[in-house]
Amino acid sequence: MRAVRAVVADAEVRQVFSSDAAQPAEDLHSKAPVGLGFINREFRYVRVNETFAAINGLSADAHIGRTVAEVVPNLWPDLEPMYRQVLDTGEAILDLDVETPAPAEPGIVRRWMTSFYPVMLDDDIVGMGIVLVDLTVSKRAEAEVRFQAQLLEQAGQAIIAVSPDRVVIAWNKAAEALYGYTAAEALGRPTLEVLHRDEPDERADEIAAAMARGESWSGDYEVVRRDGTPLSVFVTNNPVFDDSGRLVAIVGSSVDITERLESQRALETSRRRLADAQRISHLGSYEINLLTGALTWSEEHHRILGTTDRALTIDGFARMVHPDDYRASRRAWLDVIERGIPFDIDFRVIRADGEVRYVRARAEPDIAADGTVVGVSGTLMDDTDRVIAERVTKEAETRFEIGFEQSAIGAVIADLDGLPMRVNSAVCAIVGRPPSQLLGRRWNEYGHPDDTPLCEAALAWIADGHENYEDERRYIRPDGTEVWTVATVTQVRNEAGEPEYFFMQLRDTTRRKQLEVELAHQALHDALTGLPNRGLLSDRLVHGLASSRRRRSQLGVMFLDLDEFKVINDSSGHGTGDELLRDAATRILGVVRPDDTVARFGGDEFVIVCDDISALEIEEIAERVLTVLSQPWQIGNHEVRVSASIGIAMADEHSTPESLLRDSDAAMYRAKERGKGRIEMFDEELRVKAERRFSTASELHLALERDELTNMYQPIVDLSSGALVGAEALVRWNHPERGLLQPAEFITLAEETGMIVPIGAWVLEQACRDLAAWQAMPGWAPEAPRMWISVNMSVRQLLAADVVGMVSGVLARTGVNAADLSFELTESVFMEDAEYFGRTLAELKALGVALAIDDFGTGYSSISYLKRFPVDTVKVDRGFVDGLGTDPNDTALVAAVIALAGALGLDVIAEGVETYEQIMILEQLGVHTAQGYWFSQPIAAPEIAKLVTERHRWSAD
To answer: From CA 296, how far away is CA 231, in angstroms rounded?
Structure first.
């Protein structure tokens, strides 16, 4: 009955699998990536998918109706017990990990994850399902990973793997031993942090490029172990990419090369010392291996011969020997090579440049055990100086009697006790005494008292065996004048080599000494005023601070700047300015204390250092300085008065020369800010301000990187229509701690530090981008004039490299029409190098931009430059606009500016408009454009966009 039931069930199972309703499942079953099969209770295959069939090496149809024993007879003995267990018990065998030969691939063993489960029909087990998953590849991969991990861990070299962002992801035992960090301590940390490298590798770009190309990179590194000891390593880095070509890791192997580098350094030091010793002694060395023909010549050997060819041969050396000395030299070389006889000979060589040098050569043979000469080593000494000196000495001796008396250099022959036996007329002239006062007498009584030990030193030096002695000494002439001389003493020997007498030459170097003193004075003093310069001032400050601390007294520093000196210098010429500076120096010296130091710091700035002084006393001196400088100067036919601003700083226990100059300079600037012609003492308020200034300057460098700058815009309005026609860009700084900073709080610092150049470029680019956005807005009235933007540009920006190219690039990137951009220039631009700025402004004008003079009328010489530079607009300063309607002078000045601009064809914009009455007067005077708080304070770009969208109009209402 059970068999009949099985047959029926088999038919029903077949019907299920062949029904149309089961077709989607059948398709899924057939294409599944794992082997799926179904057998009945007779162990015959009912269904198998393509994957299952391929595993057994047959088609799916070839399986149907056949028993498992027929299809895989070699596996059936192992499979039968498990199949029967599932069919008898109804319990599935799941996820069985087995290793068997592949039926379709005889001889190949594969790993399978196998599951057997019963197939039920009406609570009866009618068959069994089989699931086969091929784990061979994954298991091999796991084994490979374990094998590689073991290799990595057991590797003799330190192996480190890092992620693309340089974070440690692998660290083997050798790395632990080399660097001192355990894997737990290193994993997950940046490599620079683990290896204590404060700076990234300067070769980082080169390494990154190599890695991107898939290339390995090797190099030496200096790192620090965990215990703080330095370590030199040689690292080889290899990139690892995934299948998509993305860099996933960098694996590096490290080798300790500390000892090797130390050995190399020691060897290099030894070689360098040997080369230095040879160079100093003019002694070269060489080695010749007669068996191999290898030659080694030292650097000094080449220097002596004047050769640069490191492949110098013996024949090449022989050809340099002087023809008259060749035979004797050749005989000596043959003796040492063939017979092993050393030599020590003198001969001449002719260098490639034709110069003849005298040399002394020594050679020693290297003799093998069998008596054969296998090599030669020796030295070569440049003896030219000695030979020439001997020759000169001999020639001098032959001409001595002729030249002794006629020599312009003082000459003395003295006995071995140092007493003169003979003198020439030049010596008598130098010391100002006749021979009778010089012969047989020691000259100590004529010498400068400080130089008395020199004569005794000369005798002691020569007594020690030295042939020559030279020193610098002074003599006092009968008239009391001091003469500087250089004395050269030579011991002369007879033919037996015994000392016979001393020969001394005396040269008058008084003029040279005077020049040295003058040059030293010039090096430390200002050429124009004769006052100490910065170098000497710094030295005086150092000594003054040290002295005041020893005496527990106070030291004060005054920093003085002549007010409006530039105006006089520019209007009357530099010659007049130089005369005024010299006179100012004289006046200052006349009112300070004798021991005070007055130095010219630069330009029209002076520094006065007062030692041992109180704050009250230094202020009294400063008052005297102000008084004497305020007295009139006569310049040509004009009488000129110049005031001065003085800042004072008193030293404390923490003061340095730099801090005193900085603090007194800050006090001087406060004196200028408070009206000039006054004295200000550095105090805590200034210290805080200076510290704030320093902090602001430091943070300003990061403001651009942190995107802390923003542009605000003040509308520029057409007075006749009340329409918005333009806007002036005004930069603000969103400081993370101090809030929104106005330009006055950082622009001056930006100018001084040079940051104004990148800041100005940023302001220009942002302003042009905002303008392009406003002009593209649909709310812009077609009949309205095209809106333009105004951007400030300083002297420092105009001096920047390729400022015209920068502006051109911004216009190209933003698409702004050059005619819609105007640069506002301060009058200081026109008072600098007129020729340079004239060229730069002409190049900017050639781009099509407009140029305007800002704050017109507040500076000097603006009118004279209006015709020389391509200016389009003048902006009337708010200081004049404030007085419209209340101050007749301001009204007259504004009217004059407008008339002048009209005569020159220039536009006029009024700044600082705050009342409707001012608008009415400006319109009456012919001004058509203005800006100021009556219209709007500076606002953000979105608010300007809103005004454009609403087609806003300003009116008296």
So the answer is: 35
Question: Cα–Cα distance between 252 and 157 in angstroms, integer?
Answer: 10
Kindly report the number of other CB atoms within 10 A of residue 392's CB atom. 10
Q: Which residues of 347-356 are buried (b: 16+ CB within 10 A; e: fewer)?
A: bbbbeeeeee
Angstrom distance (rounded) from CA 247 to CA 169? 14
SS3 string, 467-521, reads CEEEEEEEEECCCCCEEEEEEEEEEEECCCCCEEEEEEEEEECHHHHHHHHHHHH
Output b/e per residue, 778-788; b: 16+ Cβ within 10 A: eeeeeeeeebb
Q: Is 267 helix (H, G, I), strand (E, B) or coil?
A: helix
Q: Residue 742 is encoded by which pair of tokens?
A: 């106005």
Could you give the residue ranges of the DSSP H alpha helices within 735-833? 747-753, 756-775, 795-799, 803-814
Closest CA to 214 of 253, 245, 243: 245
Give the whole-angstrom CA distance, residue 518 versus residue 527: 11
This prediction's pTM = 0.41
Taking the C-alpha atoms of residue 236 and residue 255, their distance in angstroms, rounded to an integer, is 9
DSSP 3-state helix, strand, coil percentages of the chain (rounded to 5)?
45, 30, 25
The answer to whether the beta carbons of residues 647 and 680 sit under 8 Å apart is yes
Give tens-digit pLDDT for 758-771: 999 999 999 999 99
**8 — pLDDT class (breaks 50, 70, 90):** very low
From CA 408, how far away is CA 395, in angstroms rounded? 18
Choose among 520, 543, 544, 545: nearest CA to 532: 520
Over its C-alpha atoms, the chain yields an Rg (Å, rounded) of 49
Question: Which one, of 372, 298, 301, lies nearest residue 337 by Cα?
Answer: 372
Quickly tell me which residue has 């024993």 as its tokens.
69
Type of residue numbered 875: K
Spatial separation of the C-alpha atoms in residues 83 and 68, rounded to whole Å:
10
CA-CA distance, 734 to 742, in Å (whole number)? 9
Amino acid letter, residue 422 = R
The mean of the pLDDT values for the chain is: 82
| 224 vs 290: CA distance, rounded Å | 49
Q: Is 540 within 8 Å of 597 (Cβ atoms)?
A: yes
Q: Tokens in use for 29?
A: 């079953």
Q: 526-568: per-residue pLDDT in tens?
A: 888 889 988 889 989 999 898 888 888 899 999 999 987 877 7
Phi and psi at residue 483, to the nearest 5°: -120, 130
Q: How far apart are CA 137 and CA 770, in angstroms?
A: 61
What is the CB-side half-sphere exposure of residue 721 using CA atoms within 13 A?
10
What are the residues whose beta carbons fall under 8 Å from the beta carbon of 945, sequence distance 6 or more? Answer: 773, 774, 777
Helix (H) / strand (E) containing 293: none
Q: Which residue, 140, 127, 70, 62, is CA-closest to 99?
A: 140
Question: How far from the centroid of its chain's Cα atoms is residue 718's Cα?
Answer: 50
Domains and CATH numbers, the chain: 2-139 (3.30.450.20), 155-256 (3.30.450.20), 263-382 (3.30.450.20), 406-514 (3.30.450.20), 547-682 (3.30.70.270), 698-950 (3.20.20.450)
pLDDT at 2: 38
516 Cβ neighbours under 8 A, 6+ residues apart: none
Q: Tell me, what DSSP letter sits at residue 786?
A: P
Residue-level pLDDT at 16: 42
**CA distance linking residue 307 with residue 304, whole number of Å:** 8
What's the rounded Cα separation, in Å, for the pair 832 and 316? Answer: 66
Provide the sign of the torsion angle of the four alpha carbons 74, 75, 78, 84, taken in this order. negative
Q: How many distinct helices (H) and strands (E) make up the chain?
A: 35, 36
List the Cα angle 534/540/545 in 5-degree steps.
125
Strand partners of residue 247 = 241
CA–CA separation, 607 and 533 (whole Å): 10
